[in-house]
Structures are given as structure tokens and as C-alpha cells.
Specification:
The structure holds two protein chains of two kinds. By secondary structure, chain A is an alpha/beta fold. Chain A is 34% helix and 26% strand. Chain A has eleven helices and ten strands. A six-stranded mixed sheet of chain A has the order 6-7-8-3-9-10, sandwiched between helices. Chain A has a four-stranded antiparallel sheet with strand order 2-1-4-5, covered by helices on one side. Chain B is built from eleven helices and no strands. Chain B is flat and about 90 Å long. Chain B folds into two domains: 38 residues; 239 residues, MetI-like fold (Orthogonal Bundle). The longest helix of chain B has 37 residues. By secondary structure, chain B is mainly α. The chains are: A alpha/beta, B mainly alpha.
Chain lengths: 289, 297
């Protein structure tokens, strides 16, 4: 696996081990980033129906990874498996292995409440609580016992979500009075307030107008400096704009069943300019899906 | 079918449309008539109770006890107080139980358990109130004595399924996305229920409770068994003695060979009716407000 920003520069001279080490130390940014999620042959079934199968994928820290693909290819299913949001779906089963910082997400003794405390999620439709703006952001920290400096925490989260300036004078007003784009940024602030490690975004801009969408995309750029971001989108331009790496999912025929699977994953530029798989090429050039 | 119709013909009724219009009109008027009957019945009941009960009404009637040995004067003060005490006790028992039940059914239980519990609630809801009265009688009165508490327990058996059902319906209305959002924040299930789901549903739960109170306040049969042999003194003694109450009072007064008693029965009926109508009106207002709150998203 190469570095994040394209291929690693070629070594021009033969080096001894020491020289190599020194050279690597000079370019710490080129070292591969730590793996956050390691999916190993992951499959998901709801009852008798297999939704995705054979997904092997590594997601690295402080990168924005986009998941694209046609409808019904299991993008959201995969994303929601990353913080165990599918657990409440009747008949949900996960095969293969899904590691988070080396720990099996579905292993024994794993508490899904703790999983979600570290892996936040923002949904397709803005879903603020019917509470005030302040309480929306403060609710989770309060319930998780982070009561010290709550006001600062709320302000920080709203700043991070680029919403502070718009709402600072009406923190006590109902969140339901905000516009759709503001509500979605509030949901991001709410997720950031508990300082998660990862932020999962499930088509966060699909219900928003282009201006609000641009604001969310801008936000993803800033947020990836501090968080690891996985974003599902059906909008290829959006993936191209915000993601460092892109995973393309599609439907595959397996034992007479149409099952979603990962076709390929690579640097975003590669996926959009010279993908390895013809199906990816067809999809990104708009020939299907 | 070769319906060679002329699309350029004038747009007036043609073919069997005339007959269809008559059938349509007929069906509509029958349905409208049915709705009218319901309203008229309610109107007649209210008017006749009001007309016959209104003359009995006075401040004395609402506050004083009836004369010890019959005759004019006095009122149903103790019965009003007794009903208030009994219904309050019933509410305190059945609201927590009913709401917890609803939470269990809508938030925690698996689909199979849900079916069983729902069936149980529906059956409980359909139990004849006289059977419930008999049950409370054998449980709390036999071998002891009648008490307001026994009446409250009997009424609670009626009220719990009503509240549980109403709360359940409201909890179902709370958008799934809110639970999902709370889940995704790493907050435990119970905190999610208490912090997000219940507040969103509060208005509806209050509405259901008020309706259930209105229903329970008018139940007579269970009280006949449990708290009907009382002396007409104002009392808060829930456990020690039978408490006077409006429904039983109406029954006793209407059985008296005394025209004044007969009139008082109508008066008491009017008081009960007004209470129930007001409770219903309040409940509707609350319901409208809570729906507006949930619908605002």
C-alpha cells in the first residue's frame, strides 16, 4: 500500500538500513497511516438474504474514505456495520472479521454502546432532537458524564461543525427551527461533542440543497485533520471533491443471488481516472447506476 | 372492449355515469346520516342531563353533604371529594405501570412478546367492569371491609390497559430516526428512552392519561362492590373506610323514593358529565399541541 497522496517517491540511491531509516524519518508524512478499520472478507445477511459479501478493505486514520456505488449495493449496510447500527435490524448477521484498531468489533465482550461512543454517525436525513440547539449538542456529553466545561464543549463542537456563528445568539431556541443544512451541521456538532475517533457519514448531503451541500463538503475537509471519516455518497462528484480514498461497491452475481460487494478501493484520483476494474470505469464514467 | 367514444363530445354525464352518480349520492348520505346519529345521541344525552340536572346545581350542592335522613337541601360534596381521592390514587397506580408497560412493548420487547402482551392488554381492556369489580371485591374486600383503596385498585385494572395502549401508540409515532440518532451517540438504551423518546411523547401520554381518567371516573360497577356502603362524610381516608363517590351516589340517589333524591341524581350526573367533557376537551387540546410539536420536524 502506498502513501496517501499518490505513489511514494522512488528511492534513487541504494541505501543501508541506517540511511533508509534516516530517510524515512525525514518524511514522516509518507509513512502509511495507521489502519482504523480492517474489514476481512466481511459479509452481511439479513435473515436469508445476503446483502454484502466478500468485502476486504482497510480504512486509515485521518483520511476521508468515500464509499460509492449504485443503489442497493450495500454501501450503507457496510457503513452501518462499522458502528454496529445494524444490530437492531432483525435477522442481521455478520460474517468474516471487522477489526477496529485491531479489536474485533463483533467479538465477545464488545459493548456496542461503547463502540458508538467512539464511532459517531450522521444520517441521511437531519435528525435533531426536539430540544434546544444547546441541548442537542449537550445531551450526549451530559449522559456520558462529561459534565465539566459543558458550555465550552458545546461551543467547540458547534465551531467544529461551522455552525457557531449562525446559532450563537439563539442557543436556547428549538433545533427544529433551523434550516435543513443547519440541522445537518447541528447533527455533526452533536456527534463531535463526545469527541469520537471516527465519524461515519451516511449520504449526509443527499437531502440538502447545493449550498448546504457545499458547506458540508467544506466541513469534511476540515474535520479529517482530527477525525477519520467514512462517507457514503451516491454523488460521484462529491466523492471526488471530499475523499482521499474511494471504495467502489457494486452488485455481483453470487450463487444466483445479487449481492453487494467491494469492487475496488484506491486513491480517489486513481478511481476516477484509471480504475483497475471495468465495472468501476463504467460507473464513474456514468455508463450505469 | 371497443369503447369508441368521441373525445370531442361535450363534457356532460354520459353512459352509466348518471346511475353511478345516484348510487354515490345515496352512499354518501347514508354515511353522513350515521355520523349525524352519533352526534345527535350525544347531544340528546347532554341536553337531557343538563336540563334535569341544572336545577339541582348550587354551591351547596357541590360542597355540602346530603341531609342525614333524606329531605331537601345538601349535596354531593363528599362524593365529589371521594371520587377525586379514588381517581387520584388510581392514577398514581396506573400511570407508572401503564407507561412502563408501553415502553417495554414499544422499545424493548421482541416481536413475539409484543403480540402476547398486546393481546393481554386488549383482553384486559375488554373485561366487563363488573367482573373487575368482583375480582377486587374478592381480593381486597372479602374478610376485610370496603375501602376507597379497593375501588382505586379496581379502577386501576381498567385504566392500565387504556394508558398502556395510548402511550404505545404515541411511542410508535416518535420518529425512528431520533432513537437511531441517540443510539449513534453511544448513550445507553434507557437513557435514550428517558432523555429523548419519552419527552417527545409526553404530550400524547398526558392526553391518553386524561382520557383514561375520564373513563375511570365514570365507572360504577367496580365501585359498587368495593366502596359503596359509606356514610356521607368528607374523608381522605383511602384505606380505612368506603369513600363516597359520584357514580355510586347517582345510583343510590336514583333508587330513593324521594323526588329530591331523584333530582340530586340528575345533578350528580351533570357534574360527572361536565367533568368528563372538560377532561376530554383538555385532552384534545394537549393532543393537538403535542402532535404539532412532533410534526414540526
Amino acid at each position: 500500500m502506498t502513501g496517501a497522496n499518490g505513489s511514494a517517491p522512488r528511492m534513487r540511491i541504494r541505501t543501508t538500513a541506517e540511511q533508509l531509516e534516516a530517510a524515512l524519518a525525514e518524511r514522516p508524512r509518507e509513512a502509511p497511516r495507521p489502519v482504523v478499520f480492517d474489514a476481512r472478507d466481511v459479509s452481511v445477511a439479513y435473515g436469508a438474504k445476503t446483502a454484502i459479501a466478500g468485502v476486504s478493505l482497510r480504512i486509515r486514520r485521518n483520511l476521508a474514505t468515500a464509499i460509492i456505488g449504485p443503489s442497493g449495493c450495500g454501501k450503507s449496510t457496510f457503513l452501518r456495520s462499522l458502528n454496529r447500527m445494524n444490530d437492531s435490524v432483525p435477522g442481521f448477521r455478520l460474517g468474516g472479521q471487522l477489526l477496529y484498531h485491531g479489536h474485533d468489533l463483533y467479538g465477545g465482550g464488545v459493548d456496542r454502546v461503547e463502540v458508538r461512543r467512539r464511532i459517531g454517525m450522521v444520517f441521511q436525513k437531519p435528525n435533531p432532537f426536539p430540544k434546544s440547539i444547546y441541548d442537542n449538542v449537550a445531551w450526549a456529553p451530559r449522559n456520558l458524564g462529561m459534565k465539566a466545561g459543558l458550555d465550552e464543549r458545546v461551543e467547540r463542537a458547534l465551531h467544529s461543525a461551522a455552525l457557531w456563528d449562525e446559532v450563537k445568539d439563539r442557543l436556547k431556541a428549538s433545533a427544529l427551527g433551523l434550516s435543513g443544512g443547519q440541522q445537518q451541521r447541528l447533527c455533526i456538532a452533536r456527534a463531535l461533542a463526545i469527541e469520537p475517533d471516527v465519524l461515519l457519514l451516511d449520504e449526509p448531503a443527499s437531502a440538502l440543497d447545493p449550498i448546504a451541500t457545499a458547506a458540508i463538503e467544506e466541513l469534511v475537509h476540515t474535520l479529517k485533520r482530527r477525525y477519520t471519516i467514512v462517507i457514503v455518497t451516491h454523488n460521484m462528484q462529491q466523492a471526488a471533491r471530499v475523499a482521499d480514498r474511494t471504495a467502489f461497491f457494486s452488485l455481483d452475481e453470487r450463487a444466483g443471488e445479487r449481492v453487494g460487494t467491494l469492487i475496488e478501493e484506491d486513491a480517489t484520483a486513481t478511481i476516477f481516472s484509471r480504475p483497475a476494474d471495468s465495472r468501476t470505469r463504467d460507473y464513474v464514467s456514468g455508463r450505469f447506476g | 372492449m371497443s369503447a369508441a367514444f368521441d373525445p370531442t363530445a361535450p363534457l356532460t354525464a354520459s353512459g352509466n355515469l348518471r346511475r353511478r352518480r345516484v348510487v354515490n349520492l345515496l352512499a354518501e348520505s347514508i354515511a353522513t346520516g350515521a355520523a349525524l346519529v352519533a352526534v345527535v345521541v350525544l347531544g340528546v344525552v347532554i341536553v337531557s342531563v343538563a336540563v334535569r340536572g341544572a336545577p339541582a346545581l348550587s354551591l351547596d350542592f357541590l360542597t355540602k353533604a346530603p341531609p342525614q335522613f333524606g329531605g331537601p337541601g345538601g349535596g354531593i360534596g363528599p362524593a365529589i371529594l371521594g371520587t377525586a381521592v379514588i381517581v387520584l390514587a388510581t392514577t398514581l397506580m396506573s400511570v407508572p405501570l401503564g407507561v412502563l408497560l408501553a415502553i417495554y412493548v414499544s422499545e424493548l420487547a421482541g416481536p413475539r412478546t409484543v403480540a402476547v402482551v398486546r393481546l393481554a392488554l386488549d383482553l384486559l381492556n375488554g373485561l366487563p367492569s363488573i367482573v373487575i369489580g368482583l375480582f377486587a371485591f374478592s381480593l381486597l374486600v372479602v374478610g376485610r371491609h370496603q375501602s376507597g383503596f379497593a375501588g382505586a385498585v379496581a379502577l386501576a385494572v381498567i385504566m392500565v390497559p387504556l394508558i398502556a395502549r395510548a402511550a404505545q401508540e404515541i411511542l410508535l409515532l416518535v420518529p425512528h430516526q431520533l432513537r437511531e440518532a441517540a443510539d449513534a451517540l453511544g448513550v445507553s438504551r434507557w437513557r435514550t428512552i428517558v432523555g429523548v423518546v419519552l419527552p417527545s411523547a409526553l404530550g400524547g401520554i398526558v392526553t391518553g392519561t386524561v382520557l383514561a381518567i375520564a373513563r375511570a371516573a365514570g365507572e360504577t360497577a367496580p365501585l359498587m362492590f368495593t366502596t359503596s356502603i359509606f356514610n356521607n362524610h368528607a374523608s381522605f381516608d383511602l384505606f380505612g373506610q368506603a369513600l363516597p363517590n359520584i357514580p355510586v351516589m347517582i345510583f343510590i340517589l336514583s333508587e330513593q323514593p324521594d323526588p329530591a333524591g331523584y333530582q340530586r341524581a340528575w345533578g350528580a350526573g351533570l357534574v360527572l358529565l361536565v367533568f368528563i367533557l372538560v377532561a376530554n376537551a383538555v385532552a384534545r387540546t394537549l393532543a393537538a399541541r403535542s402532535r404539532a410539536k412532533l410534526g414540526a420536524r
